[in-house]
């Protein structure tokens, strides 16, 4: 069984643990925001197409 963060003899310094935590949070935020960022242009394109169709129908 490998060592975990709760192991008293953890070889990582507190600075390293802080950096790991900051990196983890950064990656979680990146991936949580990625889907909305990728969907936004699709939504805008759909709105544009509907407006163009509506203008053509008039």
Automatic annotation (TrEMBL):
Superkingdom assignment: Eukaryota
Protein name listed in UniProt: Uncharacterized protein
């Amino acid at each position: 069984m490998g060592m975990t963060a709760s192991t008293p003899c953890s070889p990582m310094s507190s600075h390293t643990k802080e950096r790991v935590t900051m990196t983890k949070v950064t990656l979680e935020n990146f991936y949580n925001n990625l889907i909305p960022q990728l969907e936004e242009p699709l939504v805008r394109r759909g709105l544009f197409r509907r407006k163009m169709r509506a203008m053509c129908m008039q």
